[in-house]
TrEMBL record:
A Pfam family: SnoaL_3
Entry protein name: Nuclear transport factor 2 family protein
Ranges where the SnoaL-like domain occurs: 10-139
Length: 153
């Protein structure tokens, strides 16, 4: 494969990961993570969580998140992909809109926005690019623009 084709394939795998999360598709998430060979090496850090290691622990975390999230949507910005041999690194900003269970039947719970910077590491397998590691970290600092706006008030 050419370098450009690898980058496109990694971008597609990364997009599939976030789309599966939005759909609450546990099987889709499971297929995207390394399994069998390399499955014990996988790791995941959700914002505010400790490091999770091994396929079982990582996939349980996604099952837990999906079971407690009624709605989630990711708007990815600042996406950068680097490929070196059989390893790829994607960095991005996850602009997340999510909602928990509704207080009344038939209604969506309150929506919350969150900004997370993420690093997704992929490994090439015979079945395509699979996630080796995900690390999400909340953005707590204000941007320079927000600080400038506040100083003017």
């Amino acid at each position: 494969m050419s370098a450009r084709t690898d980058v496109e394939a990694v971008e597609e795998a990364n997009t599939a990961f976030y789309e599966a999360m939005e759909r609450g598709d546990f099987d889709g998430i499971s297929e995207l993570w390394l399994d069998a060979e390399g499955g014990d090496d996988i790791s995941c850090v959700h914002p505010g969580w400790p490091v999770l290691s091994g396929r079982g622990e990582v996939l349980r975390s996604y099952a837990l998140i999906m079971s407690h999230t009624e709605y989630i949507q990711f708007f990815l910005t600042d996406v950068r992909v680097s490929v070196a041999g059989d390893t790829a690194v994607v960095t991005c900003t996850e602009n997340i809109l999510s909602g928990g269970p509704a207080e009344e039947a038939g209604e969506l719970g309150p929506l919350v926005g969150q900004l997370v910077v993420a690093t997704n590491v992929f490994r090439r397998t015979p079945d395509g690019w699979r996630i080796w590691s995900h690390h999400g970290s909340p953005v707590l600092a204000e941007s320079d623009e927000e600080q400038d706006d506040e100083s003017l008030s």
